[in-house]
Specification:
One of its GO terms (cellular component) is cytoplasm. By secondary structure, the protein is of the alpha/beta class. It is about 40% helix and about 25% strand. The chain is built from 13 helices and 15 strands. Strands 1, 2, 3, 4, 5 and 11 form a 6-stranded mixed beta sheet that branches. Strands 8-7-9-6-10 form a 5-stranded mixed beta sheet. Strands 13-14-12-15 form a 4-stranded antiparallel beta sheet, covered by helices on one side. Helix 1 packs across helix 3 and helix 2 runs antiparallel to helix 3. The longest helix has about 35 residues.
Length: about 400
């Protein structure tokens, strides 16, 4: 038996056919994911079933190895993405049922920091694309302007970066949350791929001025320390920095930003992967004038702020309340209270629905032992943590 030889064009044609089949199957799988969500409305089952996901992954890995000679990491990576998409689809379906007024709005006005192409702009598009919502995009020069644009009713939502895995918390945003009447209604964690962009492919040693927002300057500090004689200039956003480089049209200036955003300004990437950490992510929050109703079938996060007395052990006492009710705290941030020297406001994120019994009881206790407590929002958890398959089970 001789091997059949195919021309390159025939191979590519067959690959195209297979790709189309894969797309068709993925679309069909998505439709069935919605059917699963509909059945869970009737049974009140939670969106995620870790044991079911575990069994599914193990079965897929074993079948892939035995029948199709596919290795476990390959199958796991693909189906983690498919499962994440299914979870987010089901969450979105249940959220639309819980918030019928919002689900009937196919258009939303969204305020964000910087011009088109900024990381906040990219996050806005990513978050609302999951909800099939068209955007009227309102770019702002400052975080304060984003807040005011939503508070005044000129925007329905605001998108704000809250923390980065490399540079830490964004204090200005935390301080604004202390005084706003807005509610946190969602979150999004985005990978941040910093690179140097310029009008042409110039050598690094020729760069004299580098434009960016202060946050990327911090997040790329190790790379920047190796550049000799470069002046760092701060801009309102990475998009504004790229626009500045475009306008200057010089061979000795560059900007830090996303490569795809650079193309919007006619810039090209001259150095990629310049962040201090290879896994560089920013968490964004979405704020609105009214809170969102979160289905109890969806993993939820609650954010609140509190101030405690100045007595020793006051903060520990509040944390013990969360421990007593088995509530997982994912974030604790302190910021000074303006006008009250040496007093701090604590920002707390917990993985709990605000209306759950444990959170209700914990909140009642916290109110008694704190000087001030305010819930900033309860919203669906954005990060779908993958189940790690146990092949030895």
């Amino acid at each position: 038996m001789t091997d059949t030889k195919y021309s390159l064009d025939e191979i590519r044609l067959r690959l195209n056919e297979l790709d189309d089949q894969l797309l068709q199957l993925l679309s069909e799988r998505r439709r069935f994911s919605i059917e699963v969500a509909k059945s869970k409305v009737e049974t009140s089952k939670p969106v995620r079933d870790a044991s079911r996901e575990q069994q599914l992954l193990v079965k897929l890995i074993n079948n892939g190895k035995d029948k199709y000679q596919l290795d476990a990491p390959y199958i796991t990576k693909i189906f983690h993405t498919i499962i994440e998409d299914s979870v987010l689809l089901q969450q979105n379906y249940l959220q639309n049922l819980a918030n019928p007024q919002q689900s009937r709005k196919p258009l939303a006005r969204v305020a964000f920091l910087g011009s088109k192409g900024s990381y906040s702009h990219l996050a806005s598009r990513e978050f609302f694309s999951r909800k099939n919502t068209e955007l009227i995009e309102l770019n702002c020069d400052q975080f304060k302007e984003v807040i005011k644009t939503v508070e005044s009713g000129h925007a329905d939502y605001g998108v704000l970066p809250i923390e980065n895995t490399s540079s830490g918390s964004i204090n200005e945003v935390f301080d604004l949350l202390q005084h706003t009447t807005l509610h946190i209604v969602g979150e999004l964690t985005q990978p941040i791929d910093h690179c140097l962009v310029a009008t042409k492919d110039i050598q690094l040693e020729k760069i004299k001025t580098l434009y960016s927002h202060p946050q990327p300057h911090q997040q790329c500090s190790e790379f920047l320390s190796r550049l000799s004689g470069v002046v760092l200039e701060s801009c309102a956003s990475t998009a504004d920095a790229m626009q500045k480089v475009q306008e200057l049209a010089r061979d000795d200036v560059a900007a830090i930003g996303h490569a795809s955003s650079g193309k919007l300004y006619g810039l090209q990437s001259i150095q990629s992967d310049i962040a201090n950490q290879t896994e560089n992510h920013t968490r964004f929050i979405i704020v609105a004038r009214k809170p969102v109703e979160v289905s109890t079938q969806i993993p939820a996060k609650t954010t609140f702020i509190m101030s405690t007395s100045q007595e020793a052990g006051s903060l520990v006492e509040t944390l013990l309340v969360l421990q007593r009710y088995d509530i997982n705290m994912t974030k604790l941030e302190s910021r000074p209270i303006m006008g009250n020297p040496w007093e701090e406001m604590f920002y707390v994120d917990v993985e709990a629905h605000k209306d759950s019994e444990s959170m209700q009881l914990a909140t009642q206790e916290l109110i008694k032992i704190t000087k001030y407590l305010k819930v900033l929002g309860c919203y669906p958890i954005d990060n779908v943590k993958p189940v790690i398959p146990d092949l030895n089970a």
